């Protein structure tokens, strides 16, 4: 008797999101669990973004600042540098809007975003400073300034999603929907946003992941559960997932601690980059589609990994 | 929970009259309405008043009209193999045959028919001797159906075993046996066959029918019921299924769970 190969049969797939104005960069669309090409399709490879700030970061380790020497105070030059470094996407963080920093006006932020967008030819993610009320005001202006560019803007939360969603709809952008590692809140937020008539394939889920050593397994489980739900037909969880890995990995003491402080941990440069790379590859296995990183060497290393993982194992 | 809408059945007055008058409107109305109310299949039954020789033509007419009105597959329900085959011939997509018993001569007709038309099939855990009283006897008959389907290349996900619930006012002792049968069906094969039930049977000629149906459906879901031929016009039934889906971890919770269940 012939042996029947047991393959999982999924009934649904992840929505496909376009990340730029001419539809050349897409994410999502998977009809199988990560990299199991023998059970379904993975039409798009995950994309890697490098962060740009509109304000010189003060607490970044020297090792992280070094590749961007001379451009850290100039978001346009920094963004161009990121493209040179091979970033698929540039992720502009409008940190200057933060009331604790420059408390920059929405108009100033929008001007910066426009200048960066005009200088590069890769897709853009634009996030606010993390203060929900301020981000709503900032993103409203940014969304307007970048009309038609089809950017991914965020982060929309339970508190500010109405303004952010409306801006995205009017100006043709997609939205990052953030909820703090809670699959139920995440699903609910997606429902609320789609009830405003934002198409489901213009939402990226941000589960607010933690880095290696800081709750990575919890985030992994949530992403895995959401993805299985999506493949089984749960449309309100069938969105590509964005992981802000850089900000988490570079917050870890294993990344920040210098050679002198922790000689037993090995050289900081190798260690910190490994921290960012391993956090990313782990979440790629959990189904992440968009990774926002900080160090150019991490981009390089993750690309090697993704090249291998995207080789079809279909049979 | 795969809900099979029970409403397009000549047992109901409006459908019976629609068949007599060749008026497709009631059929179309119920196809569309049940589609909007979470039905995944439309049960189609000519009812007892149609003459045997007319049944194939009537089935064909019902299936065509139902599928024109709603994008759903049909559960073709008849005791007449010619009527079932007539329905299958015009059916679009993957149909379900309702049903075979565990009698060998019937399985020899319906199971190859399911294979020929790539249809799913409901297998009733009974035979010419009637509905068994115990779970053990029901399971023995279910196993006969599993074996016959396997021999004909029907995958277990296309086999729906109905443990046969009887009205609780005449056969009260059957309820617990049905629940036990549902549990055991899942151990008959790996992957396991699916399960279904004619839910409204449980409350024939009882008072508080909706309550009885709904309660038994939820109890059955907890014991492995995958599908039910039921009254999807009952709001409370749909809400109870939505809640049970959450409690059985079949659906990821969110505050709008009643709404998401009804959204397609």
Write the layout of secondary structure elements.
The complex is a heterodimer of chains A (315) and B (264).
Chain A: E1 16-18, E2 26-28, E3 47-53, H1 62-65, H2 75-84, E4 89-93, H3 106-119, E5 124-127, H4 132-145, E6 152-156, H5 161-171, E7 174-178, H6 183-195, E8 203-206, H7 216-231, E9 241-243, H8 245-249, H9 253-256, H10 268-286, E10 288-293, H11 296-309
Parallel strand pairs in A: 3-4, 3-10, 4-5, 5-6, 6-7, 7-8, 9-10
Antiparallel strand pairs in A: 1-2
Chain B: E1 2-9, H1 13-21, H2 25-36, E2 39-45, H3 55-69, E3 74-77, H4 81-90, E4 96-100, H5 104-116, E5 120-124, H6 135-151, E6 159-162, H7 174-185, E7 194-195, H8 209-222, E8 227-230, H9 235-247, H10 257-262
Parallel strand pairs in B: 1-2, 1-8, 2-3, 3-4, 4-5, 5-6, 6-7
Helix pairs in contact in B: 2-3, 3-4, 6-7, 8-9
Entry keywords:
heterodimer, A: 315 residues, alpha/beta, TIM Barrel, eight-stranded parallel beta sheet, two-stranded antiparallel ribbon, 11 helices, 10 strands, 39% helix, 14% strand, B: 264 residues, 2 domains, 10 helices
